């Protein structure tokens, strides 16, 4: 039986950060992962360039049953701390938009940085490990794989959520939480495309590939970004963001022209070009294929602008400023970037990430019921919660 101070399960963003910090404190740390490589989600994140944090990250960018829980970790290890680490390793990066920071070259720079830090902190890594059992007795955890049993004082669970099962995602962390009496809040895929009802699919799949800036609203939350029509449904950053707030059976209301008031626009067009067709005028504001489709399905009626009364202008404006889609569902964990829900924060200390009633057991990163918006927030939570646990485990 091998003896460690700390075993971390999961060599992703949160697990590696925690292992590095614990290693720096002189703890003997082993990281176990089921994959062939560390940081597989980091490598494929941000289109291969890893949106590693967000300059404006704050507690308001996270969903959780307890929205205060993330505050402590986020304030103790901030985006600026992570940016300083990236700078220390001379990794070139840039802001894409909205405070989102990406590597100039490759996400591999971030994984290499974490591996270098882990090596310097004497962290041991064991990959392709299949954990078959975890038990606790006399203040020690025993973690068993078919080959070996290992013991530790502190067990840190950083096994992530359920998204991308073909990349090694498992329910391990949730099952372990329940084994030790922690509550797991309902799980669902988030930051995920929404899918069409069969009738809408027949209508809209023809315009797949069309994208436009919108605001998308569900449950009173609104995101201004681009929306993309796909063969399966709606996607693009505005839809991914709103998918975290949308619940099955609900509507998503889309403002197709958030910058321009359509009533005013049509009145001005009517004055300037009375003979012009409505569809020609609208195509100055919206993608032409979308306008043609809306006319096709009689969401708006094409006619010369001179025949439009102010009431019909307002009706057209109402339709386009608040177009209601009723999604069938989401594409699920196959394409979701994150899992909402997870280990209930009620059972964890926000200061240390340790289970309140199970000494030495820690949960960090996505396995916890803290989920960020799209835009680098999920990694910031992984870094921050991992860093915090690394100070105590
Ligand atoms: P993970 O990174 O998922 O790591 C968990 C690790 O545990 C994995 O290596 C897994 O193989 C391992 N594991 C699981 N089960 C077991 C087991 N039973 N035994 C041993 N090991 C196990 N967030 C951003 O902020 N910016 C982005 O640009 C971004 N892009 C993304 C793109 C995609 C396609 C996806 C899917 C997600 C993206 N995210 C992004 C979200 C982000 O990747 C996650 O929130 C983050 O990786 C969570 O970190 P984690 O360490 O908690 O879990």
The major pleated sheet works out as: 7 strands, mixed
Which stretches of 5+ consecutive residues score pLDDT under 50?
none
Helix coverage percent of residues? 25-40%
CATH superfamily of the largest domain, by name, is FAD/NAD(P)-binding domain
% residues in beta strands: 15-25%
Secondary-structure-based class equals: alpha+beta
Radius of gyration: 25 Å
- The average pLDDT score comes to 97
The CATH architecture of the largest domain can be given as 3-Layer(bba) Sandwich
Query: How many strand elements?
Result: 21
In this entry the ligands are: flavin-adenine dinucleotide
Number of helices: 13
The CATH topology of the largest domain is given as FAD/NAD(P)-binding domain
- The number of distinct structural domains comes to 2
Taken from the alpha-carbon principal axes, the silhouette is elongated
Termini separation comes to 21 Å
**CATH level-1 class of the largest domain:** Alpha Beta
Provide a compact summary of the structure:
This protein is an alpha+beta fold. Helix content is 31%, strand content 24%.
How would you describe what is shown here?
- The protein has 393 residues and is of the alpha+beta class.
- It folds into 2 domains: 2-189 and 338-392, FAD/NAD(P)-binding domain; 193-330, Elongation Factor Tu (Ef-tu), domain 3, CATH 2.40.30.
- Helices cover 31% and strands 24% of the residues.
- It contains 13 helices and 21 strands.
- The chain has helices spanning 13-24, 40-44, 71-76, 79-88, 108-120, 172-179, 198-204, 237-243, 262-272, 278-282, 288-296, 310-321, 377-392, and strands at 2-9, 29-32, 51-54, 62-63, 93-95, 100-103, 124-126, 133-137, 140-144, 149-157, 184-190, 194-195, 211-218, 221-229, 233-235, 252-255, 323-325, 329-330, 338-343, 361-363, 371-372.
- Strands 1, 2, 7, 8, 9, 10 and 20 form a 7-stranded mixed sheet that branches.
- A hairpin with a 2-residue loop joins strand 13 and strand 14.
- The longest helix is centred in the C-terminal third of the chain and has 16 residues, at 377-392.
- It starts with a strand and ends with a helix.
- The model has no long low-confidence stretch (mean pLDDT 97).
- The structure holds flavin-adenine dinucleotide.
- Residues 9-15, 32-35, 40-41, 44-46, 50-51, 129, 131, 158-160, 163-164, 168-170, 172, 337-338, 365-366, 376-379, 382 line the site of flavin-adenine dinucleotide.
- InterPro entries: BaiN-like (IPR004792), BaiN-like_dom_sf (IPR023166), FAD/NAD-bd_sf (IPR036188), RsdA/BaiN/AoA(So)-like_dom (IPR055178), RsdA/BaiN/AoA(So)_Rossmann (IPR057661).
- This is NAD(P)/FAD-dependent oxidoreductase.
């Amino acid at each position: 039986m091998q003896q460690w101070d700390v075993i971390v399960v999961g060599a992703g963003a949160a697990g590696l950060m925690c292992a590095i910090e614990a290693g720096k404190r002189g703890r003997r740390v082993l990281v176990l992962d089921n994959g062939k490589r560390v940081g597989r989600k980091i490598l494929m994140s941000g289109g291969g360039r890893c949106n590693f944090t967000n300059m404006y990250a704050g507690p308001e960018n996270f969903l959780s049953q307890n929205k205060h829980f993330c505050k402590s970790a986020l304030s103790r290890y901030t985006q600026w701390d992570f940016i300083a680490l990236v700078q220390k390793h001379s990794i070139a990066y840039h802001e894409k938009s909205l405070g989102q920071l990406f590597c100039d070259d490759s996400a591999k720079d971030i994984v290499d940085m974490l591996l270098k830090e882990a090596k310097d902190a004497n962290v041991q890594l064991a990959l392709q490990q299949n954990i078959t059992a975890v038990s606790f007795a006399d203040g020690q955890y025993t973690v068993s794989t078919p080959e070996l049993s290992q013991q530790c004082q502190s067990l840190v669970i950083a096994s992530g959520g359920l998204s991308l099962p073909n990349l090694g995602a498992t329910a391990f962390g949730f099952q372990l939480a329940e084994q030790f009496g922690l509550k797991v809040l309902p799980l669902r895929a988030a930051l995920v495309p929404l899918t069409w009802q069969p009738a809408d699919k027949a209508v809209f799949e023809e315009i797949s590939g069309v994208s436009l800036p919108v605001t998308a609203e569900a449950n009173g939350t609104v995101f201004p970004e681009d929306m993309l029509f796909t063969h399966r449904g709606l996607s693009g950053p505005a839809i991914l963001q709103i998918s975290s707030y949308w619940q099955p059976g609900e509507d998503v209301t889309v403002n197709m022209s958030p910058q321009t008031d359509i009533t005013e626009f049509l009145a001005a067009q009517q004055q300037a070009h009375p003979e012009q067709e409505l569809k020609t005028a609208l195509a100055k504001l919206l993608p032409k294929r979308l306008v043609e489709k809306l006319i096709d399905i009689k969401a708006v009626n094409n006619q010369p602008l001179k025949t439009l009364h102010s009431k019909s202008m307002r009706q057209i404006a109402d339709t386009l400023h608040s177009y209601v889609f009723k999604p069938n569902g989401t594409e699920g964990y196959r394409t979701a970037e994150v899992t909402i829900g997870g280990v209930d924060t009620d059972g964890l200390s926000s200061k240390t990430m340790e289970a309140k009633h199970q000494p030495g057991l820690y949960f960090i990163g996505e396995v916890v019921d803290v989920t960020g918006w799209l835009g680098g927030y999920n990694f910031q939570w992984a870094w921050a919660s991992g860093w915090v646990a690394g100070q105590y485990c």
